[in-house]
Design brief:
5 strands; five-stranded parallel β-sheet
Length: 344
């Protein structure tokens, strides 16, 4: 009995020491919001103002400017996107914002890579970011309890510990720049010229294939998100952001993935709008200046997408205008690519 009590005491003491050390290392980073994506206090201060949410992964962070969108639509929007966003984080963040805002529309960004991610490889990255965007210790505990297994929680904890140590090393938490939060979640990247010359365009045409992970029940996971929106009388729809032309030019099975996503949206009875197939894409974007890399947009690209998306939103979403705005396939879209001139 004495041995058992001693074991319990030592275990409890060790857990307490670990908790204290962790709080010292991790909490200053979270509370100070020294990372650019840490926007918990800003969202809390401005709660009640928003009626439109855009949520996605890091691609979405670079693409959607709430200020530009609002100026063209009359909405009051926020970009909830984050790096490696998971479906569990999507649900949790949306639920929190829906509870404290009168949301009317939610645009959920998905991509060809959304369904290629696996929990063991990438969910820790995304969920550790989400933890840093929650505005109380209790909220963070509830999130980890409801949306992560013990192994996942330990993975998230280890990532937070490393980030916390890094912030202590650089004293980043003493130099938090909350003025960045005024962009309301929009963080475009630097501009790079991705334009292909003739030889590169010929060499890369239909040269690679993408794979998707159909073993994970994404339909069930996203069904909960759509149900959350429906239960709150919110119009939800999926958005696929425009990739660079050099990227789509090289992929030869995008129509297979498009068909998968079309079936996915039908099962959820939720429309999906793929702006890679948008007929006006080439008038808004150029590989010369719209992108940082194949997926992430530059400031010019983000401005262009938000302008394009706002026009589309006004004409199709709000007015329900059934214009024939999209090509039926990637094969058809490639015919209109700036690189098609190089293929006979």
């Amino acid at each position: 009995m004495q041995t058992f009590k001693k074991t319990i005491f030592i275990t409890t003491l060790l857990l307490l020491v670990v908790a204290i050390i962790s709080a010292i290392i991790i909490e200053p980073m979270i509370i100070s919001e020294c990372n650019y994506y840490s926007d918990a206090s800003y969202r809390k201060e401005t709660a009640g103002n928003y009626d439109f949410l855009f949520i996605g992964d890091s691609d979405g962070m670079t693409a959607f400017s709430p200020d530009i969108f609002d100026s063209k639509t009359g909405c009051t929007s926020y970009n909830l996107s984050e790096t490696m966003l998971t479906s569990g984080s999507t649900y949790y963040l949306l639920k929190k914002e829906i509870k404290r805002n009168k949301i009317k529309n939610v645009a959920i960004q998905i991509s060809c890579t959304t369904f290629g991610r696996t929990p063991e490889n990438e969910h820790g990255d995304g969920d550790s970011v989400t933890v840093q965007r929650l505005d109380s210790f209790a909220d963070r505990v509830v999130f980890l309890h409801n949306h992560s297994s013990i192994n996942e929680s330990m993975d998230i904890y280890s990532r937070l510990l490393v980030s916390g140590l890094s912030s202590w090393k650089s004293l980043a938490f003493l130099n938090s720049n909350n003025s960045e939060k005024s962009a309301k979640g929009w963080y475009p990247k630097e501009e790079n010229n991705l334009y292909l010359n003739r030889d590169k365009a010929i060499q890369t045409y239909n040269s690679t294939e993408l794979s998707i992970n159909t073993n994970i029940d994404f339909v069930q996971e996203y069904n909960e998100i759509i149900k959350l929106c429906n239960d709150n009388n919110i119009n939800a729809f999926f958005v696929i952001l425009p990739y660079s032309d050099e990227y789509t030019w090289a992929q030869k099975n995008l129509d297979y993935i498009k068909n998968y996503l079309d079936e996915f949206s039908l099962k959820l009875n939720t429309p999906v709008y793929d702006f890679n197939l948008y007929k006006e894409k080439n008038s808004f974007f150029s590989d010369k200046y719209s992108y940082c890399d194949s997926f992430h947009m530059s400031e010019k690209g983000g401005i262009a997408f938000t302008t394009c998306f706002a026009d589309f939103y006004n004409n199709r979403i709000v007015a329900d205008n059934k214009l024939n705005s999209f090509y039926d396939s990637y094969v058809e879209a490639k015919i209109h690519s700036p690189y098609s001139q190089y293929i006979k």
